[in-house]
Amino acid sequence: MLDSVEPRALERTISLIAPAKINLALHVTGRRDDGYHLLDSLVVFAHIGDKVSATPAPFDSFEVSGPFGRALPDDETNLVLKARNALRARFPEKGAPVAIHLEKHLPIASGIGGGSSDAAATLRALTVLWGIETNELAAIGLTLGADVPMCLYGQPLIARGIGEEIEGIDGFPHLPMVLVNSGLATSTPQVFSALVKRDNQSLPALPNFSSVHDVCLYLGQTDNHLFSAAEKLTPAIGDAMKALRSTDPRLVRMSGSGGTCFAIYGSDHEAEAAAAALKRAQPGWFVVATHNGMERS
Predict the structure, then answer these.
(1) Which residues are annotated as a binding site for ATP?
(2) Is 268 an active-site residue?
(3) Could you say which enzyme class this protein belongs to (predicted)?
(4) Which of 40, 50, 118, 147 is catalytic?
(5) Does the N terminus or the C terminus of the chain have fewer Cβ atoms within 10 A?
(6) Whole-number Å distance between alpha carbons of 88 and 134
(7) Is the pLDDT of residue 5 over 50?
(8) Active-site choice (21, 51, 82, 104)
């Protein structure tokens, strides 16, 4: 939650993790007149992600590094700078020059909310750095992208509407997971355009989850309605799903609009062993063992 960020001295660098967003289930339930699709999604955040750091400076600057940094623009089209600019426009008296550094550890356009999570972390970091107290961050975030409000929330949740209607979930079980991306980006607008059916049922009512078994039992009644369209556009997603299934997980699914897929395991040891085997078999893929429960700094 937003109030979990502890204010620090304004002269210090504020560094926050921008965690991977995992859509455990994603139902497309309709489409608005303006073209935005209505969703019903069960979301958790992984214990891995990008890192955003912000430091007071004589003038604005922006640096991108990390294993996936070269694939990102470092100009005003980057969501990090769009977030900075949006917050500064809302609170112009607060927006002093700042040096921002983004360490990009998540694949680009991969269905795990990297850009949206980066924008959310930027908003959160700058509210601390600039001494801004506001309840408007979700509204500001929504102007940047439909996933930004849920990334600001940063805890297990159900997202409805276009993603802005958020219902938190307490006491969500620990889920050992492996994330896999074969290296091919997917276009979210193209995936939505390729949908055959847009008026699916909402998610079933949530039970009280107490274990991995409970979560997987529930997920067996759900789907990711974007998978068929994404796989049609990017057949390699099927290869990632097949590779994950070969490691004997509890459940395999694609996150978001692809192409990152995830598997859920019974223990962290099983997830780590599966990730090691997949890395040996596919050294060029993005493969990581993780679990839900985001890092904060």
Answers:
(1) 107-117
(2) no
(3) transferase
(4) 147
(5) N
(6) 13
(7) no
(8) 21
